[in-house]
Protein backbone atom coordinates (compact mmCIF):
# COMPACT_ATOMS: atom_id res chain seq x y z
CA UNK A 1 0.00 0.00 0.00
CA UNK A 2 1.50 3.32 -1.01
CA UNK A 3 1.35 6.26 1.33
CA UNK A 4 0.30 9.85 0.90
CA UNK A 5 0.76 12.72 3.29
CA UNK A 6 0.19 16.37 3.76
CA UNK A 7 2.41 18.36 1.49
CA UNK A 8 4.77 19.93 4.04
CA UNK A 9 3.67 23.36 5.12
CA UNK A 10 4.71 26.03 7.59
CA UNK A 11 2.64 27.31 10.51
CA UNK A 12 3.68 30.92 10.97
CA UNK A 13 1.24 32.10 13.63
CA UNK A 14 -2.05 31.27 15.34
CA UNK A 15 -4.44 34.04 16.35
CA UNK A 16 -7.58 33.87 18.46
CA UNK A 17 -9.58 36.41 16.50
CA UNK A 18 -9.42 38.61 13.45
CA UNK A 19 -11.72 40.55 11.16
CA UNK A 20 -10.35 40.84 7.66
CA UNK A 21 -10.65 39.76 4.04
CA UNK A 22 -7.43 37.69 3.72
CA UNK A 23 -4.95 39.34 1.33
CA UNK A 24 -4.68 36.24 -0.86
CA UNK A 25 -8.39 36.42 -1.54
CA UNK A 26 -8.01 40.10 -2.44
CA UNK A 27 -5.11 39.20 -4.74
CA UNK A 28 -7.18 36.83 -6.86
CA UNK A 29 -9.95 39.47 -7.06
CA UNK A 30 -12.72 37.43 -5.40
CA UNK A 31 -14.34 40.58 -3.90
CA UNK A 32 -14.91 41.94 -7.42
CA UNK A 33 -16.97 38.84 -8.21
CA UNK A 34 -18.93 39.15 -4.96
CA UNK A 35 -19.87 42.67 -6.04
CA UNK A 36 -21.57 41.08 -9.06
CA UNK A 37 -23.62 38.89 -6.74
CA UNK A 38 -21.70 35.62 -7.06
CA UNK A 39 -20.55 33.79 -3.92
CA UNK A 40 -20.42 30.16 -5.07
CA UNK A 41 -23.97 29.62 -3.85
CA UNK A 42 -24.95 25.95 -4.04
CA UNK A 43 -21.68 24.68 -5.56
CA UNK A 44 -20.47 21.58 -3.68
CA UNK A 45 -16.72 21.18 -3.16
CA UNK A 46 -15.32 17.92 -1.80
CA UNK A 47 -12.27 18.58 0.38
CA UNK A 48 -10.02 15.53 0.77
CA UNK A 49 -7.75 16.32 3.70
CA UNK A 50 -7.36 15.83 7.47
CA UNK A 51 -11.03 16.53 8.12
CA UNK A 52 -12.51 19.77 9.37
CA UNK A 53 -13.34 21.43 12.68
CA UNK A 54 -17.07 21.09 12.18
CA UNK A 55 -17.86 23.40 15.12
CA UNK A 56 -15.83 26.33 13.80
CA UNK A 57 -18.20 29.27 13.59
CA UNK A 58 -16.89 30.13 10.11
CA UNK A 59 -17.45 26.66 8.69
CA UNK A 60 -20.30 24.87 10.43
CA UNK A 61 -22.94 26.35 8.13
CA UNK A 62 -20.94 25.45 5.01
CA UNK A 63 -20.60 21.71 5.71
CA UNK A 64 -23.24 19.57 4.00
CA UNK A 65 -21.85 16.14 4.83
CA UNK A 66 -18.66 14.23 5.55
CA UNK A 67 -17.04 10.82 5.84
CA UNK A 68 -13.97 9.45 7.60
CA UNK A 69 -11.84 6.97 5.65
CA UNK A 70 -8.99 6.90 8.20
CA UNK A 71 -8.34 4.91 11.37
CA UNK A 72 -8.87 7.98 13.58
CA UNK A 73 -11.75 7.59 16.05
CA UNK A 74 -11.53 3.82 15.55
CA UNK A 75 -12.45 4.28 11.92
CA UNK A 76 -15.92 5.64 12.68
CA UNK A 77 -17.05 6.92 9.25
CA UNK A 78 -19.35 9.52 10.81
CA UNK A 79 -16.57 11.37 12.66
CA UNK A 80 -14.59 13.55 10.28
CA UNK A 81 -13.12 15.95 12.83
CA UNK A 82 -9.74 17.54 12.16
CA UNK A 83 -6.98 16.76 14.69
CA UNK A 84 -4.30 18.43 12.62
CA UNK A 85 -5.51 21.87 11.53
CA UNK A 86 -4.54 21.60 7.88
CA UNK A 87 -7.95 20.55 6.57
CA UNK A 88 -9.72 23.27 8.57
CA UNK A 89 -7.36 25.89 7.14
CA UNK A 90 -7.99 24.68 3.58
CA UNK A 91 -11.77 24.72 4.12
CA UNK A 92 -11.66 28.30 5.39
CA UNK A 93 -9.82 29.56 2.33
CA UNK A 94 -12.42 27.91 0.12
CA UNK A 95 -15.63 28.82 1.89
CA UNK A 96 -15.42 30.58 5.27
CA UNK A 97 -18.83 32.18 5.80
CA UNK A 98 -19.41 35.86 5.17
CA UNK A 99 -20.15 37.50 8.51
CA UNK A 100 -18.84 40.33 10.64
CA UNK A 101 -16.04 38.34 12.26
CA UNK A 102 -13.03 36.24 11.42
CA UNK A 103 -12.16 35.75 7.75
CA UNK A 104 -14.08 35.10 4.54
CA UNK A 105 -13.47 32.37 1.97
CA UNK A 106 -13.17 32.77 -1.78
CA UNK A 107 -16.67 31.28 -2.23
CA UNK A 108 -18.43 32.07 1.06
CA UNK A 109 -21.73 30.47 0.06
CA UNK A 110 -20.32 27.27 -1.40
CA UNK A 111 -21.04 23.97 0.34
CA UNK A 112 -18.40 21.56 1.60
CA UNK A 113 -18.27 17.76 1.58
CA UNK A 114 -15.58 16.86 4.14
CA UNK A 115 -13.76 13.66 3.20
CA UNK A 116 -11.17 12.78 5.82
CA UNK A 117 -8.48 10.79 4.01
CA UNK A 118 -5.50 11.74 6.20
CA UNK A 119 -5.18 11.10 9.93
CA UNK A 120 -4.28 13.55 12.65
CA UNK A 121 -0.56 13.12 11.99
CA UNK A 122 -1.08 14.07 8.35
CA UNK A 123 -0.53 10.64 6.81
CA UNK A 124 -2.78 8.16 5.06
CA UNK A 125 -3.01 5.26 2.64
CA UNK A 126 -3.45 6.06 -1.01
CA UNK A 127 -6.41 3.68 -0.82
CA UNK A 128 -8.19 6.15 1.47
CA UNK A 129 -7.68 8.96 -1.04
CA UNK A 130 -8.89 6.74 -3.89
CA UNK A 131 -11.99 5.80 -1.89
CA UNK A 132 -12.53 9.48 -1.14
CA UNK A 133 -12.48 10.41 -4.83
CA UNK A 134 -14.95 7.63 -5.61
CA UNK A 135 -17.17 8.70 -2.72
CA UNK A 136 -17.19 12.29 -3.98
CA UNK A 137 -18.12 11.11 -7.46
CA UNK A 138 -21.06 9.02 -6.23
CA UNK A 139 -22.28 11.31 -3.43
CA UNK A 140 -25.68 12.92 -3.67
CA UNK A 141 -26.92 15.59 -1.30
CA UNK A 142 -30.31 15.81 0.45
CA UNK A 143 -31.67 17.80 -2.48
CA UNK A 144 -29.89 15.86 -5.18
CA UNK A 145 -26.73 17.99 -5.06
CA UNK A 146 -23.62 16.64 -6.74
CA UNK A 147 -19.95 17.41 -6.21
CA UNK A 148 -18.62 19.82 -8.83
CA UNK A 149 -15.08 20.30 -7.49
CA UNK A 150 -12.60 18.02 -5.71
CA UNK A 151 -9.85 19.81 -3.78
CA UNK A 152 -6.72 17.94 -2.65
CA UNK A 153 -3.76 19.50 -0.84
CA UNK A 154 -1.87 16.25 -0.33
CA UNK A 155 0.65 14.17 -2.21
CA UNK A 156 3.01 11.26 -2.53
CA UNK A 157 5.86 10.14 -4.74
CA UNK A 158 4.07 7.08 -6.14
CA UNK A 159 1.97 7.28 -9.33
CA UNK A 160 -0.78 5.09 -7.93
CA UNK A 161 -2.78 3.58 -10.77
CA UNK A 162 -6.01 3.10 -8.83
CA UNK A 163 -6.01 6.72 -7.68
CA UNK A 164 -5.25 7.90 -11.21
CA UNK A 165 -8.13 5.85 -12.63
CA UNK A 166 -10.53 7.15 -9.97
CA UNK A 167 -9.58 10.73 -10.81
CA UNK A 168 -9.99 10.09 -14.53
CA UNK A 169 -13.45 8.67 -13.91
CA UNK A 170 -14.44 11.65 -11.73
CA UNK A 171 -13.39 14.02 -14.50
CA UNK A 172 -15.51 12.05 -16.99
CA UNK A 173 -18.38 12.67 -14.57
CA UNK A 174 -17.70 16.42 -15.09
CA UNK A 175 -15.99 17.01 -11.72
CA UNK A 176 -12.97 19.31 -11.91
CA UNK A 177 -10.07 18.14 -9.71
CA UNK A 178 -7.79 20.76 -8.11
CA UNK A 179 -4.47 19.64 -6.57
CA UNK A 180 -1.51 21.28 -4.86
CA UNK A 181 1.75 20.99 -6.80
CA UNK A 182 3.98 20.22 -3.81
CA UNK A 183 6.67 22.00 -1.83
CA UNK A 184 9.86 20.25 -2.94
CA UNK A 185 10.84 23.05 -5.30
CA UNK A 186 14.43 24.28 -5.46
CA UNK A 187 13.73 27.62 -7.11
CA UNK A 188 15.00 26.39 -10.51
CA UNK A 189 12.65 25.77 -13.42
CA UNK A 190 15.01 23.42 -15.23
CA UNK A 191 14.58 20.73 -12.55
CA UNK A 192 11.34 18.79 -12.20
CA UNK A 193 9.63 17.96 -8.93
CA UNK A 194 6.57 15.74 -8.99
CA UNK A 195 4.01 14.98 -6.29
CA UNK A 196 0.90 12.92 -7.04
CA UNK A 197 -2.00 13.36 -7.62
CA UNK A 198 -0.95 16.93 -8.51
CA UNK A 199 1.35 15.83 -11.34
CA UNK A 200 -1.30 13.71 -13.08
CA UNK A 201 -1.96 15.54 -16.35
CA UNK A 202 -5.75 15.49 -16.02
CA UNK A 203 -5.92 17.49 -12.79
CA UNK A 204 -5.50 21.22 -12.29
CA UNK A 205 -2.06 21.45 -10.67
CA UNK A 206 -1.58 24.61 -8.60
CA UNK A 207 1.75 26.21 -7.75
CA UNK A 208 2.33 28.95 -5.21
CA UNK A 209 3.18 32.65 -5.29
CA UNK A 210 3.70 35.06 -2.44
CA UNK A 211 1.45 38.04 -1.82
CA UNK A 212 3.66 40.14 -4.11
CA UNK A 213 3.03 37.77 -7.02
CA UNK A 214 6.49 36.20 -6.96
CA UNK A 215 6.95 32.42 -7.38
CA UNK A 216 7.42 30.71 -4.02
CA UNK A 217 10.86 29.14 -3.74
CA UNK A 218 9.34 25.94 -2.39
CA UNK A 219 6.78 25.53 -5.21
CA UNK A 220 7.30 22.44 -7.40
CA UNK A 221 8.14 23.04 -11.05
CA UNK A 222 7.25 20.72 -13.92
CA UNK A 223 5.60 20.77 -17.35
CA UNK A 224 2.14 20.03 -15.91
CA UNK A 225 1.80 23.13 -13.70
CA UNK A 226 -1.47 24.75 -14.75
CA UNK A 227 -1.57 27.98 -12.79
CA UNK A 228 -0.51 29.63 -9.53
CA UNK A 229 -2.32 31.19 -6.58
CA UNK A 230 -1.36 32.74 -3.24
CA UNK A 231 0.39 30.22 -0.98
CA UNK A 232 2.50 32.26 1.44
CA UNK A 233 1.37 33.90 4.65
CA UNK A 234 -2.22 32.75 4.12
CA UNK A 235 -4.65 33.59 6.91
CA UNK A 236 -7.54 31.17 7.37
CA UNK A 237 -9.55 29.17 9.87
CA UNK A 238 -7.85 26.85 12.35
CA UNK A 239 -8.76 24.53 15.22
CA UNK A 240 -10.71 25.67 18.28
CA UNK A 241 -12.45 28.59 16.55
CA UNK A 242 -9.06 30.20 15.97
CA UNK A 243 -7.17 31.34 12.87
CA UNK A 244 -3.69 30.68 11.56
CA UNK A 245 -1.22 31.95 9.00
CA UNK A 246 0.20 29.05 6.96
CA UNK A 247 2.42 28.75 3.88
CA UNK A 248 2.63 26.06 1.18
CA UNK A 249 1.12 25.01 -2.12
CA UNK A 250 -1.53 23.43 0.14
CA UNK A 251 -2.73 26.98 0.71
CA UNK A 252 -2.64 27.88 -3.01
CA UNK A 253 -4.88 25.03 -4.22
CA UNK A 254 -7.96 26.00 -2.13
CA UNK A 255 -7.83 29.53 -3.56
CA UNK A 256 -8.37 27.92 -6.96
CA UNK A 257 -11.05 25.53 -5.67
CA UNK A 258 -13.03 28.47 -4.33
CA UNK A 259 -12.41 30.45 -7.50
CA UNK A 260 -13.84 27.60 -9.57
CA UNK A 261 -17.02 27.66 -7.46
CA UNK A 262 -17.47 31.34 -8.31
CA UNK A 263 -16.76 30.64 -11.98
CA UNK A 264 -19.30 27.80 -12.09
CA UNK A 265 -22.04 29.93 -10.54
CA UNK A 266 -21.33 32.93 -12.75
CA UNK A 267 -20.81 31.08 -16.03
CA UNK A 268 -23.79 28.78 -15.67
CA UNK A 269 -26.07 31.72 -14.99
CA UNK A 270 -24.71 33.55 -18.03
CA UNK A 271 -24.87 30.56 -20.39
CA UNK A 272 -28.09 29.19 -18.87
CA UNK A 273 -26.84 25.61 -18.77
CA UNK A 274 -24.55 23.28 -16.89
CA UNK A 275 -20.90 23.50 -17.98
CA UNK A 276 -18.74 20.46 -18.67
CA UNK A 277 -15.47 19.93 -16.83
CA UNK A 278 -13.59 20.98 -19.96
CA UNK A 279 -15.59 24.20 -20.15
CA UNK A 280 -14.98 24.95 -16.48
CA UNK A 281 -11.27 24.41 -17.10
CA UNK A 282 -11.37 26.81 -20.05
CA UNK A 283 -13.21 29.46 -18.04
CA UNK A 284 -10.65 29.14 -15.23
CA UNK A 285 -7.65 29.55 -17.54
CA UNK A 286 -9.27 32.57 -19.18
CA UNK A 287 -9.11 34.14 -15.74
CA UNK A 288 -5.32 33.93 -15.45
CA UNK A 289 -2.64 36.53 -16.11
CA UNK A 290 0.96 35.66 -16.92
CA UNK A 291 3.53 36.76 -14.36
CA UNK A 292 6.31 36.46 -16.94
CA UNK A 293 7.93 33.47 -15.31
CA UNK A 294 8.72 30.19 -17.04
CA UNK A 295 5.69 28.00 -17.78
CA UNK A 296 7.29 25.36 -15.55
CA UNK A 297 6.97 27.82 -12.67
CA UNK A 298 3.61 29.45 -13.36
CA UNK A 299 1.74 27.42 -15.97
CA UNK A 300 -0.78 29.86 -17.41
CA UNK A 301 -0.21 32.44 -14.67
CA UNK A 302 -1.99 33.69 -11.56
CA UNK A 303 -5.75 33.51 -11.05
CA UNK A 304 -7.40 36.91 -11.54
CA UNK A 305 -11.13 36.37 -11.33
CA UNK A 306 -12.28 39.50 -13.11
CA UNK A 307 -10.23 38.69 -16.23
CA UNK A 308 -11.25 37.18 -19.58
CA UNK A 309 -14.98 36.62 -19.55
CA UNK A 310 -15.65 35.01 -22.96
CA UNK A 311 -17.40 32.05 -24.55
CA UNK A 312 -16.99 28.55 -23.06
CA UNK A 313 -14.68 26.24 -24.95
CA UNK A 314 -14.49 22.47 -25.15
CA UNK A 315 -10.75 22.62 -25.86
CA UNK A 316 -9.21 20.57 -23.04
CA UNK A 317 -5.59 21.04 -22.11
CA UNK A 318 -2.96 18.63 -23.31
CA UNK A 319 0.05 20.42 -21.92
CA UNK A 320 0.77 23.74 -20.29
CA UNK A 321 4.06 24.20 -22.15
CA UNK A 322 2.62 25.68 -25.34
TrEMBL record:
Record has Nucleotide-binding as a keyword: no
Catalytic residues, chain numbering: 49, 86, 250
Spans through the membrane: none
InterPro entries per UniProt: Peptidase_S8/S53_dom, Peptidase_S8/S53_dom_sf, Peptidase_S8_Asp-AS, Peptidase_S8_His-AS, Peptidase_S8_Ser-AS, Peptidase_S8_subtilisin-like, Peptidase_S8_subtilisin-rel, Subtilisin_Carlsberg-like
Limits of the Peptidase S8/S53 domain: 40-301
Family listed: Belongs to the peptidase S8 family.
PANTHER family: CEREVISIN-RELATED (PTHR43806:SF11), PEPTIDASE S8 (PTHR43806)
A Pfam family: Peptidase_S8
Subcellular location: Secreted
Cofactor(s) needed: Ca(2+)
UniProt keyword terms in alphabetical order: Calcium, Hydrolase, Metal-binding, Protease, Secreted, Serine protease
UniProt protein name: S8 family peptidase
Amino acid sequence: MSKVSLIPYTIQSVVKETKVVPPGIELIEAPRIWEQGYYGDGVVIAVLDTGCDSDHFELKDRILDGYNFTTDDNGDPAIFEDYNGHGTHVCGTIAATQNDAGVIGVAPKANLLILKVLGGQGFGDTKWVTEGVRFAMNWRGPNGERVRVISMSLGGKVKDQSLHQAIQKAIKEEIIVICAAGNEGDGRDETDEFAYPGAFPEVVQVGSVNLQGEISKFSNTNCHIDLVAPGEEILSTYLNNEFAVLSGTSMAAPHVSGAVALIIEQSEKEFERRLTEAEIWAQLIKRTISLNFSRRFQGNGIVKLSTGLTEPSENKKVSTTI
